[in-house]
Amino acid sequence: MIDFLKSKGRTLFIAYKTLGVVFGGLVTSPLYVYPSMQLKSPTEENYLGIFSIMFWTLSLIGLVKYASIAVRADDQGEGGTFALYSLLCRKININILSSKRSCANSCTTEKQSKLGKFFEESLVARRLLLFIAILGMCMLIGDGVLTPAISVLSAMDGIRAPFPSITKTWVEILSAVVLIALFLLQKYGTSRVSFLFSPIMGAWTLTTPLVGIFSIIKHYPSIYKAISPHYIFTFFWRNGKEGWLLLSDHYLKSHCCFYAGSEAMFADLGHFNKSSIQIAFLFTIYPSLVLTYAGQTAYLIRNPNDHKDGFYKFIPSAVYWPMFVVSTLAAIVASQSLISATFSIIKQSVALDYFPRVKIVHTSTRQEGEVYSPEVNYILMVLCVAVILIFGDGSEIGNAFGVVVTMVMLITTTLLTLVMIIVWRTPPVLAALYFVVFFVMEGVYVSSVFTKIPEGGWIPFAISLILAFIMFCWFYGRQRKIEYELTNRIDMDRLKTLLSDPGIQRVPGLCFFYTKIQDGLTPVFGHYLKNMKSLHTITVFTTLRYIMVAKVPPHERIIVSKLGLKGVYGCIVQYGYADSLSLEGVDFVLQVTDGLQNQVRDLFDQAQSTTSLDEEIADIKEAKLAGVVHVRGKTRFHISKSSSWFDRNMIAFYEVLHSNCRSALPALGIPLPHCIEVGMRYEV
């Protein structure tokens, strides 16, 4: 019993902590539920219909889709778009380069589904699936720009009610200052202030529903009759096209916020267990939002013309300033949550070679997922401030926010449906029911919010498409490079022939030669050997394998092997998309040399002399003392005239990206003085 209580107590503690990290955008959504209304004369029936829409949207999408179904679609504890695509990658062969099936991925004893066979046989479908997954990740990056802007701006706007002389311009400037300060603090990491997140979110989720209950009792005690779907049908029947357009209006921003919060909840599965997330959502977030929305609606039914500032006007004057402080702090926490999520997405994208290399810094020794990217941070800061100063009235920011988040939720629904059919083998009837219900409901929101693209919604959509194109081109270029290396690889027989050349000298030292292929050596090595005419006494051909899993167990992280030639070894370093990339030079060399010595001992049987064993181990130690060097290829493409227009354009853009990104080895923690780059051109 004691162990049971301890277990439940820990789950509740984690659930409480989850409030401050995962649900930032979700819990701050009441700030902008009713900032404006397109209905000329909103009536009691209109408000009841709107609350009914919000209640059922929150219940179905937040409670059913994300908290009940999506949390099950984890990849070794990690969630988000990467996890969904990872599950599909490991179940079916979805290589985007050719239509040839890979036995390593698809030749299994388990019978493949018809949908899985379709993707394996259709190159266009596989490329489209990859682009959709990448677009979903880019849309979440767009959240990192818009959520801080709209959250802080909406919270700071509350200062105008007691001080009417303060103009919108001053609110925008003050919001920009707050965001700049927040971005400048990112380099110190969130761990130093994260202990404040949970109390802030706890205060927010406690105080807003209390105000909501007070408003319900005072203004409209029968508000919960609107839970009946009858009011939804009545609302659309009476308002028609005007009601449909209202979905894309400002009160949709409340939905967008809990969509963004729900996506954050799904993406942060790796930081919190499923139980804590579900408990936090079901027992705190969900009832808090329902009570707060109900309280705002009750106030507006009695004060129908106050919808332009529905949140702050429904707060009693006696608690106005405490609520203003709490809401502002909650908006900052929401912003921090999305900024941190953006860093994590970029880190995962770089780790899997989906994004050009940028600097990734780990700001905590305890939390592996706490990362920071200087380039990304300052780009986000500039974009956030620009969004506030250019679209400061909140209307166009909200339109942009709506476009991004509704697209993300639709992409998640699509990928999750594929996972249900291909991976989970869900009965077709249930999978179809899930897809129809959520795709239709979310499709209505998407169709409505797309009417706002000319009014600011095009900005994040354009940014997301540009980012998606960059990621797709980068990944395509990297895959084409690997394909060339596999076609022109140097096998072990060819390596023996090259090393048998009397002109090849063995020089003292330990060399890590980086190659992207495992079955053989990269053609860069042949180019290097031909021109340098030398090879280090101990040469370790090292492959960095980023596999489509969340995390690789420590004992499987570094795998060493003897390649059958004196002083020549192989090493595979395996990383998942949620693992740290840093090899920390000295520690990495120590791990590999220790692994080599253990491997040598295992390979020497009783028939071989102990002297040979001692000599080989001594050679490894001496080579390490003589000096360590890391050699990698610096390859470029030479595009032939026979290449297709697709290859010419994609690879040309990849070359531009490759010329302006960071080197891979510094990102691994290896000192630059120990690095050598060997240039070579690959013809395609």
TrEMBL record:
Pfam families registered for this protein in UniProt: K_trans, K_trans_C
- Its membrane topology, per UniProt? Multi-pass membrane protein
GO terms assigned for molecular function: potassium ion transmembrane transporter activity
Q: Which intervals hold domain K+ potassium transporter C-terminal?
A: 508-683
Question: Where's the K+ potassium transporter integral membrane domain?
Answer: 15-495
Give TM regions. 12-34, 46-64, 128-150, 195-217, 279-299, 319-339, 376-394, 400-424, 431-451, 457-477
Q: Which GO terms describe its cellular component?
A: plasma membrane
Query: Which domain of life, per UniProt?
Result: Eukaryota
Which controlled-vocabulary keywords does the entry list?
Ion transport, Membrane, Potassium, Potassium transport, Transmembrane, Transmembrane helix, Transport
Q: Where, subcellularly, is it found? A: Cell membrane; Membrane
Note the InterPro entries from the entry: K+_transporter, K_trans_C, K_trans_N
**Which NCBIfam families does the record match to this protein?**
kup
Biological role stated in the UniProt entry: Potassium transporter.
Question: In which family does this protein belong, per the annotation?
Answer: Belongs to the HAK/KUP transporter (TC 2.A.72.3) family.
Name of this protein: Potassium transporter
Q: What species is this protein from? A: Coffea canephora (Robusta coffee)
